[in-house]
Amino acid sequence: MELIEKALEFESRKMTNMSLSDRVEASREAKSLVLALNEVYKETKDPKIMDVMKLVTEKKRKIEKRLKGAPID
């Protein structure tokens, strides 16, 4: 499936030296990948798809954590 390959390629990308707009774009791409994978998973119940979704979601969380920045105390 090309969707899984695209998700794995996204997960393996380096996320260093990204601008703010690059991070926003990557976050949106991750969201769309997860939603598309979820639709396929609903039909097939393939555990491999769930594992890929978890990898992409974890990467998305790291990107969003960096976007939001450190909390101000």
Radius of gyration: 13 Å
Measured between the Cα atoms of the first and last residue, the distance is 46 Å
Low-confidence stretches: none
Helix content: over 70%
SSE series: HHH
Strand content: under 5%
Largest sheet: none
Structural class: mainly alpha
Task: Note the overall shape.
Answer: elongated
- Overall tally of structural domains: 1
Provide a count of the helices: 3
Mean pLDDT: 89
DSSP E strands, number: 0
List the helices and strands and how they pair.
Layout: H1 2-12, H2 20-44, H3 47-68
Overview of the molecule:
- The chain is mainly alpha-helical.
- The protein has one domain.
- The protein has three helices and no strands.
- The chain is elongated and about 45 Å long.
Name its key features.
mainly alpha; 73 residues
Summarize it.
The protein has 3 helices and no strands. It is mainly alpha-helical and 73 residues long.
